[in-house]
Automatic annotation (TrEMBL):
PANTHER family: LARGE SUBUNIT GTPASE 1 HOMOLOG, LARGE SUBUNIT GTPASE 1 HOMOLOG-RELATED
Compartment(s) where it occurs, according to its Swiss-Prot or TrEMBL record: Cytoplasm
A biological process from GO: ribosomal subunit export from nucleus
Keyword set, alphabetical order: Cytoplasm, GTP-binding, Hydrolase, Nucleotide-binding
UniProt name for this protein: Large subunit GTPase 1 homolog
Acidic residues biased stretches: 269-278
CP-type G domain sequence ranges: 165-399
GO cellular component: cytosol
Pfam families xrefs: MMR_HSR1 (PF01926)
Top-level taxon of origin: Eukaryota
Length: 601
């Protein structure tokens, strides 16, 4: 045997010594300047350091680097997790954003107003007056455009046709009392404070009155809250319901007319539409509700809103037709524009029931009514009595502050049939009306929030429209629920009051002002059918079910025992589920029905 190579035998030991050092190794270099650098093992692996230059960091990286240098430790809370559905709150503002917009609106409130008619006298020609009106109107539009573009404030799509504003100017000039008709569910939205100021600018002898229509939607306590609110502002307000007045007039007989008014009176009238005979506010009450409301009005009639001295005072009385006529006759005591005749100017937003109110006062249909905003095109005068005349003004959308366009749609300012995006308005309705009220009203089952989500969150627009469309049979050709069609029905129900939500005055708490009925608890004796139990259970997928499906999943393919050969593929379509075959639209619709099976009872 040859001798071993010493260099080969000592190679492994040399590598170990070089890496870990020798216990008996003595430090040759006694220079203290090399301390903590070369000779001392201070815990750093100098050969493996990442010496990459870092000059810029994101906010998150800077936060982590600072926390690491400070020795801060973080502990994850795995059980405290809340999932946010991205489809909830689409098109709506958050609470913080709404507060910012509200501050900008209050800051620029003085810039919001209506155009004024320029001053004129007997020496002013018609051409000069029209030119001055155009200049004033142009300046007004530029001021509002600047408010929208520079400040970024959302306004209602106000009327931009000068002829409509000329109709308003004529009505204000020839009226003794200008009556603003507002919706009882949100009076402040439809009230124009600048119009009241303009009426006083035209003549100090003119008076303002706010007529809160559709007041049958409000309870007596809610009417009292609004009466106290307007009394605090020194504004005269009265409550009326054109729908109940029309129902009362029909019960008394259509051929009878009060105060000697003839149905064939000669007045200016525009052509009737094909919707003649349909009232704007289609009553959502039964005969029992109408009888109870009429009984309430007859009981309230014992308390008159006009005092013994002839002065009108705000009260929570729901006025009848006769009482409202009495208020109109005795409200104005000063000099009249037309000698011996009290002229009442009727002004209001579209779709607040202005034409229906006039028809209820006349006790017969003289003004055409439509659920589409902007039906009345020209102002017209109608004699209610020989010494009492009504002056109907076209519906004007006056500029006012809004948060989103969805509010304009649900309040009837914008026509529902012409909307382009149905998701934000339906989302707004779902946030206002509780889940159990929607289910009870339409007889549907809304899917509950998924595991990890907020259990009290409102349903999304897609969940509500899918449930409603599936329940009503509104399906498209490919078997999916027709959401745009379902949205139009739900929005119209909200505008007509089937889905009722009333806004409180700024001085009252909304949660205490409008309360919804509690969810009816299911009795112990009531037992759900097996189909309903399976549907409800299949809709909610817990983490345990998800883990069970994942770990118990059987392998498929060539390694599965009993796999059919290629010769048996001709009969595979007969043995498989029919909705798996996507070549047939019928099978595709069957699959979609299974997806929405939890909506069926």
């Amino acid at each position: 045997m040859g001798k071993k190579n010493k260099s080969t035998a000592n190679l492994g030991r040399s590598l170990i010594k070089d890496r870990f050092g020798s216990a008996g190794r003595t430090r040759r270099n006694k220079d203290p300047s090399l301390l903590h650098t070369a000779d001392v093992d201070d815990g750093y692996e100098w050969g493996r350091l990442n010496l990459q230059s870092v000059t810029e960091e994101s906010s998150f990286q800077a936060f982590l680097s600072t926390a690491e240098l400070a020795g801060t430790e973080f502990q994850a809370e795995k059980l405290n997790i809340t999932f946010v559905n991205p489809m909830s709150g689409v098109g709506l503002l958050s609470g913080e954003d709404k507060e910012k917009v509200k501050g900008a609106q209050d800051k620029n409130k003085q810039l919001l107003g209506i155009p004024r008619r320029p001053k004129w006298d007997i020496n002013t020609t018609a051409e000069q007056l029209q030119a001055a009106e155009r200049d004033e109107f142009l300046e007004w539009r530029r001021r509002l455009a600047k408010l929208q573009e520079v400040e970024g404030i959302l306004l209602t799509p106000y009327e931009k046709n000068l002829e409509f504003w000329r109709q308003l100017w004529r009505v204000v000039e020839r009226s003794d009392v200008v009556v603003q008709i507002v919706d009882a569910r949100n009076p402040l939205l439809f009230r124009c404070e600048d119009l009241e100021t303009y009426v006083k600018e035209v003549s100090p002898d003119k008076l303002n009155l706010i007529l809160i229509n559709k007041a049958d939607f409000l309870t007596q306590s809610q009417r009292r809250a609004w009466a106290e609110y307007f009394s605090g502002l020194n504004v005269k307000a009265a409550f009326f319901s054109a729908t109940l007045a029309a129902e009362t007039g029909k019960s008394e007989g259509d051929d009878e007319t009060d105060d000697g008014v003839s149905p064939h009176q000669d007045v200016a009238e525009y052509p009737e539409s094909e919707e003649e005979g349909k009232l704007e506010e289609q009553s959502q009450f039964t005969d029992t509700d109408v009888t109870e409301s009429c009984t309430e009005m007859s009981a309230d009639s014992e308390t008159v809103a006009v005092t013994s001295t002839g002065e009108f005072t705000n009260s929570d009385i729901l006025l009848t037709r006769e009482e409202l006529v009495t208020v109109f006759k005795s409200f104005h005591k000063g000099p009249k524009v037309t000698a011996g005749v009290t002229t009442i100017g009727m002004v209001g937003y579209p779709n607040v029931g202005k034409s229906s109110t006039i028809n209820a006062l006349l006790t017969y249909k003289k003004v055409s009514v439509s659920s589409t905003p902007g039906k009345t095109k020209h102002f017209q005068t109608l004699f209610l009595e020989p010494n009492l005349m009504l002056c109907d003004c076209p519906g004007l959308v006056m500029p006012s502050f809004m948060f989103t366009k969805a509010e304009m749609v649900v309040n009837g300012i914008l026509p529902i049939d012409q909307m382009r995006d149905h998701v934000p308005p339906v989302t707004l309705i779902a946030s206002l009306i509780p889940r159990h009220v929607l289910e009870h009203t339409y007889g549907i089952m809304l899917p509950p929030p998924a595991e990890g989500e907020d259990p009290t969150r409102p349903p999304t627009a897609e969940e509500l429209l899918n449930a409603y469309g599936y329940n009503r049979g509104f399906m498209t050709q490919n078997g999916q629920p027709d959401n745009p069609r379902a949205a139009r029905y739900i929005l119209k129900d909200f505008v007509k009051g089937k889905l009722l939500y009333c806004h409180a005055p700024s001085t009252n708490d909304q949660s205490q002002y409008h309360t919804f009925p509690e969810r009816q608890k299911q009795s112990k004796a009531a037992i759900l059918p097996p189909l309903a139990v399976r549907l409800l259970k299949s809709n909610k997928l817990s983490t345990e079910d998800l883990d069970r499906q994942f770990f118990q999943k059987m392998s498929v393919g060539v390694h599965k025992k009993g796999t059919q050969s290629s010769s048996d593929n001709s009969d595979a379509s007969e043995n498989t589920k029919p909705w798996k075959d996507h070549r047939n639209k019928r099978n595709k619709r069957e699959k979609l029905r299974r997806v929405y099976a939890y909506l069926d009872q």
